[in-house]
Amino acid sequence: MEMIVPAIAGVLVILLVVLAFLASRIVGDLRQDIAQLRLTIDTMRKAQVTPAQGSSDSLSGAVLRKLDELAETQRRSEVALMTLTAIRERSVMRDEPEAEGEAPEPRAEAPQMDLPLVDSNAPPTRGDFVRALNFPETAEDREGFAALRKMLKEPDIALLIQAAQDILTLLSQDGIYTDDLPPSPTPTAAWQSYAQGVRGASVGALAGIASDEAESKIAERLKADPVFRDTAHHFQRRFDKMLPEFAEGATDSDFAALAQTRTARAFMMIGKVIGSFGTSPGDRRQA
Questions:
Q1: Contacts of 238 (CB under 8 A, 6+ apart)
Q2: DSSP 115
Q3: Each residue of 147-166: pLDDT tens digit?
């Protein structure tokens, strides 16, 4: 049994490496397709063929729809790639036992040596936490992956990150991306009050993301999809549990940075829909 467990772990790591490689290839191919489509659209628009205007508009619309489909697939693939890479690196760190009584040797590949701005051995900072909640920007975002690796070592934060990954993936299925939903500035007092357990209109400033379409989609899916509903509520609970600790000693700039992360934007949007801040799509339409 002692030999089986390391063998299984090794196989899993290899599978994750292969999946991450395949995902990176897919993302690269999608980027090329999108670039070619954009070039085609620009050429068509510049041509402005008057005699065949109707057919030109129809073709342009079809290409635009294809472009949107490819862009959505690319974004989903990049999210999956970020998760696979983070899990793979975490597994490598955890599945390399050191012999008893021997001093640890430096890792041969030492990927963290390429990350001069993030000390992986230093205690996690607020900056690491915020960067991890935003997830890496791209597969080449070394700073983002370094912060993510550090925070995944913290059990409670790892649970929040996984919950955030789950809800962001489900939101993307409805074409909802928090990158496209910037919040209005939220006062530190509202964050602090929420961290202390205040709910309702008193923390209404946290409902700072306005998107009728996104709110309607989320509200509809909360009613119709039990998996989405359970995932959303689990995510909100994990965020609620994290916030009081983050709020201790946090400055205005700390909260401002937190609010700009993909995770916090998802929290604000879902909290707005379920009424955590005293508002919901139904309340707003009736007003």
A1: 159, 160, 163, 164
A2: -
A3: 888 999 889 999 999 999 99
